[in-house]
Every structure is written in structure tokens, then in C-alpha cells.
Amino acid sequence: LIDFRDTPDEADFRNRLRAWVADVLPTIQLPSSVDEHDRAEGPWHRLLYSGGWVGLSWPEKYGGRGLEATYEAILSDVLSEAGAPPPPAIGFLGRALQMYGSEDQKERFLPGLLSGEVQWCQGFSEPDAGSDLASLRTRAIRDGDVYKVAGQKVWTSRASWADWCLLLVRTDPDVRKHAGISCLVVDMRSRGIEVRPLLQITGSTRFAEVFFDEVEVPLDQRIGEEGEGWTIAMTTVKYERGPADIGAIAKDRRALGRLEEMQEHDLLPDSAPQVLGHLYMQIEVLRLHVLAGLSRRVLTGGAGAETSVDKLLMIRTEQRLGHAALQLLGSSICQGEDQDWAFNYLHSRAASIYGGTEQIQKGIVATQILGLPRS
Ligand SMILES: Cc1cc2nc3c(=O)[nH]c(=O)nc-3n(C[C@H](O)[C@H](O)[C@H](O)COP(=O)(O)OP(=O)(O)OC[C@H]3O[C@@H](n4cnc5c(N)ncnc54)[C@H](O)[C@@H]3O)c2cc1C
Question: Is the CB of 350 under 6 A from ligand 1?
Fold first, then answer.
């Protein structure tokens, strides 16, 4: 039986965090445009770090607090509930460096990643290698004590302002495609890198194309062994942010609460109660599934295929919320000062693509949870 309530320690943590957020939030200027939002990430990361709220589940020897994943989820929940920006997305990068980096690399890269002094991006996807990531073609050839990297990445979030990139490259074209991939950390200011921002439908230029023209990367910036890149990527993408880590539930509840308030003031059409009822149920199903997954993670220590179910429930909830707002509020969501609805509606379209598409998640559920044969 799962108890979905906070333990006394968790409740105490939640209260202290709420008090901290209530203190600092009025002192910072919340971003008002999409671009401001993107640029505010670094300062917000550093502020959270100064309060001791970053790296909660990181081992203490790497500067973290050694707490369970539940505390990261409480952090996201409290921030989201207060309308604050989400915590920084460093869990996956941290795992890659902690699990596969040498002691020197950990000492060199982990402190800046944790404190937010150094910003990172993730260079995996390419024009012909998204879902089929193992087909990536950006190549790295050894030349003395450097790799020379040539090729192109795409959809690289934060590339325009990141200092470092965790990059997947092909170091051996002659072996099975999964076995020829390696993982490098690359200084984004290296000669030969060109970043071309891409405009998203939301107005953000948060992601970019990144071109590599014989970029020199020292050999000691390879993470793990040559040919180990695929294992590193697949082990650590499980720690990419799921619904719990982005505060999706609190955010969805806030949005639903705003619609319910309008309903109470008779500002919505007659169809509203049914639409809002469905949304309430969906958010509850998402919440309970995410909490059950967190309990399992605490008990078993790892993230498993059930995170794909969380992701599918999150996609459905976010996209239905966006649709509901459009259905109930009509074109007014695109006018006036409050453009949040329009932004969230447009942004929710990306939920079924990033971090593994909806179809890929369904494939994982089919083969790894339901035990259906691979097609
Ligand atoms: C907002 C956003 C941020 C992103 N940030 C980053 C980032 O920081 N770094 C990075 O490396 N990448 C990033 N990505 C890229 C993302 O990982 C890819 O878009 C995603 O993996 C899908 O790849 P693709 O776009 O090439 O689509 P494709 O893989 O070409 O897929 C096209 C369609 O075919 C379907 N499809 C493909 N293969 C299968 C299959 N085997 N079974 C069933 N259906 C299938 C897909 O579901 C999809 O509907 C980001 C994407 C978005 C939207």
C-alpha cells in the first residue's frame, strides 16, 4: 500500500522551502517575455543554489545533499505552486558525469554545473537522428591529443548561451552503429562552432542548430571509454526531467484553478463543468502515478520503464489543458496582457516530441511493460 502523504521530514522540508520562496520571490523580477524567461534561467539557478536547494539528490561527495528523489519532486512542486520558475535541468548531466566521468573530470565540471556558474547543453539529436539516435553522424577523429569533430546537431536547447555541451559523436564508423558512439564534453566557445538559433512557435529561440567544423576537443574531455557513448546516453536519459521534476502537476493544478475561478464567476460557456471535471481527473491520475513511481524509485533506487507512462500521462494532460483553454476562452487567449494560455497551448505541442516522442514512449510501454513483441 502506498501512502501518498509527506513524511514528517518531507513536510518539514516543504515548509522551510515554502518560507524561503515566499521571502525571495518578491525580490526578483519574474520574466515577462519568452526571451527574458530563457535568459533568467542562469540567475535563478544561482539564487536557488545560494539557498541550498540545488543538487538535493546528488551524493554529498559531489556537493549535493544526498536526499531521495522525492525531495527534488517537492522542490519542483513548491516552486510551481508559487508561480516561480522551475529548478535547473541538471539531473541528467550530473548523472552522466558522476557515473562515467574520471575523478579529474568530476572535480573540473561538477561544481560549476551544480552552482549554475557554468551553463550546459545537450548535443544529441541531428537532422537524421532523433528517435533513431544511434544513426548519428557527427564524427570525431583522433588527431594527436585531440579529437577533430565535424557535423551538425539540431534542436539543441540552450546552445545559444551554454558554456559547455555534452556531445554524442561517432568515433568508429566501421562497427555496429550503437558501438561506434562516444561522449565528449565540448567548450561551446571552441573555434569552428557555429550556433544558429531556431525560432519556435512560442516565439522562443531557446533551441538552435549547432555546426561543428573540425572543432578540436582534447582527449581528456571524453567521458567514459571510446565506444561507450550509447550506454552513457541510454543510462542517463532516464534521469531527464519527468513530470515530477518539472513541477507539471502543480503547474497544471494552477491552470485548472484559474479556469475554475472563471467558472465560478460565470465567465465560461455551459460546457465548462464537464471539461473541467475531465481535466481534474486527468491531473489526479497523473499525480498519483507520478507519486507511485517516486515511491518505487525510493524503494528500488532506479528509474524504470514506468517513467514512460508518466510521460504519456503528462503529454495528455498538458495538451488537453491547452485545448480546454482554447475551447473555453476562444481567441481571447491570444489577446491582452495575459498570454500564458497561448504560450502554454503552443508549448504543450512540444511535450509529445522532446525527451522521446509519444510514439517512442508507447513503444517502450508495449515492449518493456506489457511484454508485447517488437515489430
Ligand atoms: C522543445 C524541444 C527541445 C529539445 N531539446 C533537445 C536538446 O536539448 N538536445 C537534443 O539533442 N535534442 C533536443 N530535442 C530533440 C528531440 O529529442 C527530438 O526532436 C526527438 O527525439 C524526436 O526526434 P526527431 O525530431 O528527429 O523526430 P523523428 O525521430 O524523425 O520522428 C518523426 C515522427 O516519427 C515517429 N517515429 C520515429 N521513430 C518511430 C518508431 N520507431 N516508432 C513509432 N514512431 C516513430 C515519431 O514519434 C515522430 O512522430 C528537443 C526537441 C524539442 C521539441
Answer: yes
